[in-house]
Amino acid sequence: xxxxxxxxxxxxxxxxxxxxxxxxxxxxxxxxxxxxxxxxxxxxxxxxxxxxxxxxxxxxxxxxxxxxxxxxxxxxxxxxxxxxxxxxxxxxxxxxxxxxxxxxxxxxxxxxxxxxxxxxxxxxxxxxxxxxxxxxxxxxxxxxxxxxxxxxxxxxxxxxxxxxxxxxxxxxxxxxxxxxxxxxxxxxxxxxxxxxxxxxxxxxxxxxxxxxxxxxxxxxxxxxxxxxxxxxxxxxxxxxxxxxxxxxxxxxxxxxxxxxxxxxxxxxxxxxxxxxxxxxxxxxxxxxxxxxxxxxxxxxxxxxxxxxxxxxxxxxxxxxxxxxxxxxxxxxxxxxxxxxxxxxxxxxxxxxxxxxxxxxxxxxxxxxxxxxxxxxxxxxxxxxxxxxxxxxxxxxxxxxxxxxxxxxxxxxxxxxxxxxxxxxxxxxxxxxxxxxxxxxxxxxxxxxxxxxxxxxxxxxxxxxxxxxxxxxxxxxxxxxxxxxxxxxxxxxxxxxxxxxxxxxxxxxxxxxxxxxxxxxxxxxxxxxxxxxxxxxxxxxxxxxxxxxxxxxxxxxxxxxxxxxxxxxxxxxxxxxxxxxxxxxxxxxxxxxxxxxxxxxxxxxxxxxxxxxxxxxxxxxxxxxxxxxxxxxxxxxxxxxxxxxxxxxxxxxxxxxxxxxxxxxxxxxxxxxxxxxxxxxxxxxxxxxxxxxxxxxxxxxxxxxxxxxxxxxxxxxxxxxxxxxxxxxxxxxxx
Length: 734
Description:
The protein is α+β, with helices and mostly antiparallel strands. It is built from 15 helices and 39 strands. The strands form ten sheets. Strands 2, 4, 5, 6, 7, 8, 9, 10 and 11 form a nine-stranded antiparallel beta sheet that branches. It has an eight-stranded parallel beta sheet with strand order 24-37-36-35-34-33-28-25. A hairpin with a 6-residue loop joins β22 (411-420) and β23. α4 packs antiparallel against α5, α4 (199-227) packs parallel to α6 (268-283) and α9 crosses α10 (584-600). The two termini are 32 Å apart.
């Protein structure tokens, strides 16, 4: 992932770093000063000298994350570095050198600089990223670059200088931090800026507000672009209103970040931005109500509108029996007020609420990528004659028509959708449902799972309140290979030779089977290792020892027998022992497990998701398992040896599949990322598919990515603590 590149250290040239400073030499007050920081945890650049390298006056050239002269973190939390200048000093500027642009290393989204005389009261002096980007923006993501964030706009007096870096996603690499000496007169006056008591709480709220403001500014910019094409007579007033809104966006703060729900419009100010959009549309002569269409998988902005001369919409599906299909209708409101529309279906059987039809009001939800995504699919509010659809002023809202042909015999049905109750209404749209004389199978041949870990409450957003609904939702979407943690396969107790003293408790597996009756496979992550390393023991016995082999064999035989006693086949239990093995050490360790299990209980299914980097060193490991499911992004990298390796494994009798674990998934294309993976599996002869992850996140709500640390949500639905709302992503999987 990170190619080694020769690195070297060189002295810093202050005149080049701070061209805006006076010609006289400006001292680096941080040079050789001590600092505190979270323990660095990126192994390729971690060494004892990390304790001094950030202020040693030397710069690294080359790839930071393979150089011991830099300091690196893999963390979703802000990185807090505090430098002790020894005494109160005048501060005239700050710089921080870093690197990024490739290999999932993104530029920091913010670096807050706080100053203090005593480490008790802090003053926010500025955001280094924001100030530096005004003069020298960081390079675009896509190629490796080093970059120095620097500014002379952060000034004040302090003994302690705290930099809080918000990682772009997960990684942060730092080479050198400089604190530039300022005018001595700064010592005679207090530092200007907000006083911060609880730094951690302040940083959380600041990061949250920054994400929200960025999204609001994006919404406002879209309106400003539209203002440029509005009639000249109205343009000046619109521009003034837009500027007033921009000023207010800069002051936006959310006090209760945990209770926030990022459903658009998220705050009253966003509603005002859309109301301005409505007025612009009115000035352009747009009608108050427009019905139009995009493809159901296409992205849809909150203020999207139809192209001129767009064809009249027709909601239609063509499907087999026993299948789910959907189509959409977009509703754009150019009036001054929110429209509350009444939707009814005419001309088809089962009115007013046909049992084969579910009407959903698509909600746009904010993301950490500064854009809202219209993908949440709650059911629309029912009324006596149909459904109620709400469209805020200046917005486009999508209606999702979900058709299930299980209740429909073959044939063609024509009806119409009527929207009434608002300006420009009623309007009608044709509804066409064609069911072919073909039968979609009750069970799919594809083995589908998604690491949701429904065996226990407390992880992955699973609660006592939502677990049964989540399982039902996944089963409805053809998940037949559910995942569980290793807690359902306890080790038991062994003597020194590896013989059972006490047999494993089967209670948790019993409960998991009852939760998922009829599953084709029960998938268990045994958790003996992952990409960060692997365990060198099992049940306390060192890897490769006779006691290890005996204990592992007894354990495998016990669980194979359990499957038989439960009326199941042992091969229905699939074991992922080491997650994503990607080097010879991982391959060798995994092979020690698989050799023992294959001798003791060969009926058990051994499953692996390898991330291999050559076609030779992994062969013994791959040949020792039953199911091989490589990472689809690796397959798409178009490496001929990679494709040939897995084709060879398939020809040798190994079951094949694909999984995807990129993210966060909110801004991904449901078609390309979710739907096409199943067809890709079919193309290569695969019978397994997986996604990380069909579960949510217990640290934050999937309805509120702004409160997340790091990447954000991977969940293809919108899980709450008490329920599960469908999402377009999971519909694409189905």
